[in-house]
Amino acid sequence: MPADRGAPELAAPRSPRRRTKPGAAKARSNFELYAWVFMRISGLLLFFLVLGHLFIMNVLDGGVQRVNFGFVAGRWASPFWRTWDLVMLLLAELHGTNGLRTVINDYAERAQTRFWLKMLLYTSAFLVVTLGTLVIFTFDPTL
């Protein structure tokens, strides 16, 4: 088939900007692939966990006006509900942290800015997971 003589020739695409030093060898890793797969799986699990939580709390258990210290104490007497809440906490925090990590990588242009934003993100995620897990495991209604 003859080429269209009137069509303009496309210029070669620009090469992506390098974030590493020109001489440095870059180690190959599948981390981004695993992070992508994690986002899909955790998003699906969170969808069912959160909708189940909302349905049970707002429809089956009489609404949010019933939620107080005694309600939480009774609910967390069961290992099932502690596990449900712990899994929901861990997945939500890791899912959100991974999403923000991707946003930081996409929009923070300077390496130093990227580093400090990610350190702030990882520190806050660690604190939220640690405190949430501590509350779930050490909750004692008799105190």
Automatic annotation (TrEMBL):
<dbReference type="GO" id="GO:0046872">
    <property type="term" value="F:metal ion binding"/>
</dbReference>
<keyword id="KW-1133">Transmembrane helix</keyword>
<protein>
    <submittedName>
        <fullName>Succinate dehydrogenase hydrophobic membrane anchor protein</fullName>
    </submittedName>
</protein>
<keyword id="KW-0479">Metal-binding</keyword>
<dbReference type="GO" id="GO:0016020">
    <property type="term" value="C:membrane"/>
</dbReference>
<dbReference type="InterPro" id="IPR034804">
    <property type="entry name" value="SQR/QFR_C/D"/>
</dbReference>
<dbReference type="InterPro" id="IPR000701">
    <property type="entry name" value="SuccDH_FuR_B_TM-su"/>
</dbReference>
<keyword id="KW-0349">Heme</keyword>
<feature type="transmembrane region" description="Helical">
    <location>
        <begin position="33"/>
        <end position="56"/>
    </location>
</feature>
<dbReference type="Pfam" id="PF01127">
    <property type="entry name" value="Sdh_cyt"/>
</dbReference>
<feature type="region of interest" description="Disordered">
    <location>
        <begin position="1"/>
        <end position="23"/>
    </location>
</feature>
<keyword id="KW-0408">Iron</keyword>
<feature type="transmembrane region" description="Helical">
    <location>
        <begin position="119"/>
        <end position="139"/>
    </location>
</feature>
<keyword id="KW-0812">Transmembrane</keyword>
<keyword id="KW-0472">Membrane</keyword>
